Backbone:
């Protein structure tokens, strides 16, 4: 059974770069797409983007200029970088497995609260 | 982007009640719609995919229906453990987009 464990810095200053990593345990890494989703405190869910094992990506156009999702197949890990963060980027960030490309998330990480504050 | 309009934004019902949540897409998404349950402080959990298919292990009191632009999620008999926020999500087009959520409480 696939499980996801994520980590990264929880407090950033404005203009910094957010960096989170998600490691995949207990299942195939190369057979799936992997995604990042975020949720501002008390608000709804926003899809950030997705990647597969070969590095093929899709990004939300609203974030595309600032987002990079990358993959390290040797470590069964995928990562999120979001540049030039502001208070509006304060959110719980989730990594998640996709059943197939761009469809549904059937396994989720535990979430990481990232706060942007001076 | 495809806009997903979910209603109501919150509801309060008694244990055993039938609960219905609707989700409307801004354009035809055929059956490319999922439903998630999110309990406080937890990650979302997939309940329904392809509008009406159950994820493994999901209790049969949960169901989904609809196609095109109009979708319905139903809890046939509300249980205390169903207290959560429910989200619809379309995957017809990238970016995948979610409804605003429906918070379900016990009366």
Residues:
């Amino acid at each position: 059974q696939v499980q996801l464990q994520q980590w990264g810095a929880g407090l950033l200053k404005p203009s910094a770069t957010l960096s989170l990593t998600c490691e995949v345990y207990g299942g195939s890494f190369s057979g799936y797409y992997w995604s990042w989703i975020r949720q501002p405190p008390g608000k709804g869910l926003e899809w950030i983007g997705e990647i597969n094992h070969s590095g093929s990506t899709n990004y939300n156009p609203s974030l595309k200029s600032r987002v990079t999702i990358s993959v390290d197949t040797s470590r069964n890990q995928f990562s999120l970088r979001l540049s030039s963060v502001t208070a509006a980027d304060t959110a719980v960030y989730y990594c998640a497995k996709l059943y197939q490309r761009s469809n549904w998330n059937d396994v989720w990480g535990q979430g990481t609260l990232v706060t942007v504050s001076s | 982007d495809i806009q997903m309009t979910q209603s109501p934004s919150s509801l309060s019902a008694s244990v055993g009640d039938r609960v219905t949540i609707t989700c409307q897409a801004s354009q035809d998404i055929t059956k490319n719609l999922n439903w998630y349950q999110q309990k406080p402080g937890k990650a979302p959990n997939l309940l329904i995919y392809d509008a009406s298919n159950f994820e493994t292990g999901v209790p049969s009191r949960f169901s989904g229906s609809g196609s095109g632009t109009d979708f319905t999620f139903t809890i046939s008999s509300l249980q205390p453990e169903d207290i959560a926020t429910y989200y619809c999500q379309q995957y017809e087009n990238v970016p995948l987009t979610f409804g605003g959520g429906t918070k379900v409480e016990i009366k």
Notes: The mean pLDDT of chain B is 97. Chain B touches chain A at residues 1, 32, 34, 36, 43-46, 49, 55, 87, 89, 91, 94-101 (CB under 8 Å). The longest strand of chain B covers residues 19-25. DSSP finds no helices and eleven strands in chain B.
